[in-house]
Amino acid sequence: METIMLSISIFFVSFFLLGFITLIVVMLRNDANKEKVKKEIREHGILTLATIKRVFSRSGGNSGYINATLELVFETEDGSKIACKADTVIDALSIQKYQAGEQIPLRYLPADPHKNMLDVPSTFELMKRH
Q1: How far apart are CA 82 and CA 112, in angstroms?
Q2: How far apart are CA 95 and CA 77, in angstroms?
């Protein structure tokens, strides 16, 4: 009976570890793919201005920064209008620049405009300035 219980325990521990390792590998692969797309957008993307339609903010804690999701619309070189969302971090002192109707720089891939990203300083760059 002890041998069966030990075998079952080993099976479940092995199953859990395999699942955990698989999850980590999938997350690392997804991050690598996202970074590859960001690099492609930075190198080959077309710069345009997107209009902010809506802003959803979440507290950034006591850091003086606000986490926000922006709903945006931009026009491609061929005149197509693309709607998208982008997550960003906003310096609380610059919140007026991130209101509905304001424009923000954005880069997109001409072959797939749904692959886009804001062209604003990163949180790390913002924090280095202060």
Answers
A1: 10
A2: 29
